[in-house]
Amino acid sequence: MTTPSQAVGAGGVDTGRLRTALDARAHRIVYDQYRPGADDPIGQELRLISEVDRAHLVMLAERGIVDTARAGALLATIDTLRADDFAAVRDRPMPRGLYLAYEGWLVDRLGQETGGVLHTGRSRNDLNATTVRLRVRGPYGQLVSEVMELAEVLLDRAERYRDVTMPAYTHGQPAVPISYGHYLCGVAGAVLRSAEALLDAGREIDVNPLGAGAVGGTSVPVDPGRTGELLGFTGVAPNSVDAVASRDFALRMLSAAAVLGVLMARIARDLTWWTTEEFGLLRMADDLVGSSSMMPQKRNPFLLEHVQGRSSAALAGFTGAATAMSTAGYTNAIAVGTEAVRHLWPGLAGTEEAATLLRLVVAGAEPDRARMTARARDGFTSATYLAERLVVDGMPFRTAHHLVGETVLAALDGGLPLSEAARAQPAVAEAAAGYPADWLDPETVAAACAHGGGPGGAAPDAALTRARAELASARREFGDRQARWADAADRLTDEVAKVMTVR
């Protein structure tokens, strides 16, 4: 038996009737933002810049644009900086920005003859367009991976609960019988469409803009294909204006994430209602709910409120980014490359966190089978099926619709189940005579709705099979993309070592 002293949550705070602490993953998302962060924007940006520099110098050396000795000296010095986490650069004045402070340190260290060749055939404009694509790989990859995990959990629970009959609701009222698994499979289909949209949105970040210069390319015979290969890109920007002017990928990622966010907010609304004492259709595990600082009886599914709140991050980000971009001409612009792009990071992060929380909730929500079935029965969700049976027997649908409505009223007035009220109606009783006693049970009706993607017959198996195939395909595509990025990083390190060895 759990004593009051044992019933504590994270940090030893009394949680009333709850017996476990909040799930650690949920705790990190919900509460850890109040702790000092570990973000290091200067170090992160310098590491990205230096990664591009390494590829650029390898290419310049291979093309004979910069001699191998100077390229090797630069590469060795850059690698030393990276190993020391750029400590020497961090303390320098930055009156003209981070990159020029970093380049200035290299010039001071190696002299103009060596340090001054780093920026050959390049501008900060195409450099920034490249580094932002490298930077987004991390948060974008985390979001896509989390969305696929959410889809996996939805499909697993859809299969587990495929026989748990419940009402589908329209306008907040019981409508027709389905299963909880059928609902979850429907949600999974929408999540998979968002995963596909995110994959589409990410294809642009595989195009290398390096070589576009300030906006008009360069007369130096650089090889963007080679730098792209070393950085894990699959293509080269064909137009220098487009290369430095566009950050369309930010809008497309935020747009796809915003659509997913709207979906997650809607699902959170459903689950919030269904976990109330009044509905009582779902019960959450103790590690997914909160108590009250004052009311010890409370079990609050507050993670769903965080899902609803964070799922709007991408929509807000899209609005901010699109507004910033719309003020700029189609060329390199701070409004695009800096002001618009800054909305990308919180938009992707908030959506990822919402997806994680929703996944945890779906995985830990246990349906009350008896309660769900009772609500389907007491909500007269079999009424539409009864009308359809009368239509099959030759009655016009509108006539059947009216007659079944009268039957439901009779059931309500007499406190009867729909099946008994139906047998008391002469016009309905004749049709009912040919059916078994359980023909209007919600379970029977749900199983009979085998057409139009309903919960009966072979439709659920087909839907699950198709969804799992779509998920597997998406995982393969994204896995290949991530493997290419990782392989390129290893290849670049090897090529840098070759240049340094030659010198």
Distance between the termini: 73 Å
**CATH 4th-level superfamily of the largest domain:** Fumarase/aspartase (Central domain)
Q: Quaternary status of these chains? A: single chain
* Secondary structure tally, helices: 22
CATH class of the largest domain reads Mainly Alpha
- Return the average pLDDT rounded to an integer: 91
Rg, alpha carbons: 30 Å
Number of strand segments? 6
Largest sheet: 2 strands, antiparallel
Low-confidence stretches: 1-14
- The share of residues in extended strands comes to under 5%
C-alpha geometry? elongated
What are its keywords?
single chain; Fumarase C, Chain B, domain 1; Fumarase C, Chain A, domain 2; 6 strands; 5% strand; elongated; disordered N terminus
Task: Walk me through this protein's architecture.
The protein is mainly α and 503 residues long. The longest helix has 44 residues. It has three domains: 80 residues, Fumarase C, Chain B, domain 1 (Orthogonal Bundle), CATH 1.10.275; 259 residues, Fumarase C, Chain A, domain 2, CATH 1.20.200; 58 residues. Helices cover 63% and strands 5% of the residues. The chain contains 22 helices and six strands.
